[in-house]
Description:
The chain has helices at 2-9, 44-64, 71-78, 82-85, 87-110, 112-127, 136-150, 152-164, 167-199, 201-222, 237-244, 246-274, 282-285, 292-309, 311-328, 334-362, 367-418, 422-428. The chain is mostly helical and 429 residues long.
Amino acid sequence: MQRLIGRITAGRPTLEGMSVSSAAPADPAPAHPATAERHRLGTPGLRRVNLALFAAGLSTFMSLYCVQALLPDMSRDFGVSPSRASLLVSLATGAVAVAVIPVSSLSERFGRTRVMLVSSVAATVVGLLLPLCPTFGALAAVRAVQGVALAGVPAVAMAYLADEVDPGSLGGAMGRYIAGTSLGGLLGRVIPGTLTDAVGWRWAVAAVALVVLASTVLFWALLPPSRFFRPSRIEHRALLDHLANRDLRGLYLIALVLMAGMVTVYNFLTYRLLAAPFHLPQAVVGLISVMYVGGSIGSARAGGLADRVGRRPVLLGALLMTAAGLALTLPPSLPLVGAGLLVFTVGFFAAHSVASGWVGARATTARAQASALYLCAYYLGSSVGGTAGGLAYEHSGWTGTGVYVLALVAVALVVTLDLNGRLLVKLRR
Length: 429
């Protein structure tokens, strides 16, 4: 990745507005450091930032979860179990978890926008190969490579926002970026899920790849240059400093357990709805991701609300909503399952929006690496926690899966109460 970025940016004008060499690539200093202002709510600059990162989140999460609604079809086509089929999601998210920290470090040297743009193009190209894979092993390998390529956008987007957006508008901007990711997760599931009965899973995945290509072009066209980024050495000690911060560690743990629960629900609810007592067709099951629309709205609203009333109460409310929604899915009633999934999804994305924005605000230095640690935990939760959820589903059905996810949300609630050490102080008294 580092060599590729250096080649692409060597000796030509870049989107950051300067010419660089491969020996000393860097984003420029702001043209008018004394007068430049960070993007604020209502300004054209922030609207452009929001649109660009909305498109980036859309394309990234469409690519990342385009196989999730197709897991039952792939289980059947390749003759593999549900837990093994879920590796097609876990390998991609696990690769993101592994790559996100080194890629974020590259952004400290090469610049936020440059890393995001290279990553988006590489991921788009790899995604076009998915429908051509002849075996499960080949498909799994390409998904892992795709995860590495995708890492650049989520690794850097939050740090870019923290650099360029006024602190008073950061929560709302982060919420709108998360809204793009939730809509991307929606389209990445709904498009292939509704097409697969008519054209098969390969053509369904190809359709997603074409939509991702269009979204990537939009991202390239809209992304404003960095104005407040200053290149710096890649300091790995910053990672240790962030891990030594009690509040940041808590936010990372929240990311891990929440994403483990989210991926578990969306991986295995499809199997439940295809089986007794529901027996829904695949095209209908694929539509469950429409609930992500609620997630898009919830994340944007939660980010703005956190700016006004504080992050802790909004995060606690979002987590309680997540738990309540999950509990509603336990009875074998389709209306309750639908309502519960909607509440669960809104709560999850609201919590993710607030927690991710909190990381950017809490870290005063090396923000890309602080955000990368959050995302490493987030995608590690998706990879490991999602696979563990498959074991819960195979052994105990949906009830056991629900108990597993509720336990994860409970951990997030306890950690949120303990941010800044408040809960432990009370317990010691």
